[in-house]
């Protein structure tokens, strides 16, 4: 598979060389163990509907992966900021309690990025989106090993923060702390004393990708909480709609509007986040305007059909293609022809992504180690292997649940189990 390059900032550009541009430790570990958990599950929980449904039947789970999931969710507890509730980590305490106070906001929650005490909103929002997707598709497996409640808690710890970071329709606070200062000081967040400034995007300094990713996070989370907490779900969806409108109306990369972010989570374009957010808003609302947005209105401009990419915190195209393929698998029967054809192109591109991952495919990517591990970058190299395994598991389950028996790759045929075996290998 290849990384696309496009001059327009709306599209994805070439990767930068700064190590911190390459990945977020917060989301990688969770997706890894969720992928491992679901690839060993004995049966599916995905049902044949456009909306996300649950199957209450319990299925056997491989214990070693269940243990890994438990540890991963504890990792999220380790990263928490704020006044901790039901704290499971004895050596963590309250921290960041005054975050946002200089702007009369409560930004005390959320999660620190890695070993530092910075809250980077762009990768944190992506973490919430992927966690929501995982809960929606595989919540039954999490529940079977008594981890679903912890997953809900981790997700809400982030979404509470994201709601508070959006005090008005066209303002989003996306960072807490000074990364340059923070990275010069090795300290526990419980005892930090340095000033913690907050940074925002607004109509004068827009940030389409961070606003759109936050919209995706809140829209997907609204589905997670829809049944158990409808009022909270409605609030999440209201913020998601507003943030998407803000992101789309004031199109500009936050890496250009606020150049200092380039040294940490630099964005290579915002078109993928717009499609990703609109896709989640369609699933959350069934509002056809969001479907038209990703098909006839912006598909040709931003989707880069039939060009494969690597799913990550910076590039959402492959994830969008798999997510929109879900509609073709389960809900496109009565859809208008134009939109159906465009969605078929998303599915075709998703199939190209899957064919690139399968090691025996004629179009298999050569970007692997000798042992078969997907290897794209030296910094945080597991992020792409993890994300690829996650998408492969999802696509395999979509095929199985829709009784789609075969994936064709340049004339060769593959079964859902081939995708699952690839995911296990990673």
UniProtKB/TrEMBL annotation:
Signal peptide: none
Class of the enzyme per the UniProt entry, highest EC level: hydrolase
SUPFAM superfamilies attached to this UniProt entry: Six-hairpin glycosidases (SSF48208)
Region (Disordered): 1-21
EC number: 3.2.1.4
Gene Ontology molecular functions: cellulase activity
Name by which UniProt lists this protein: cellulase
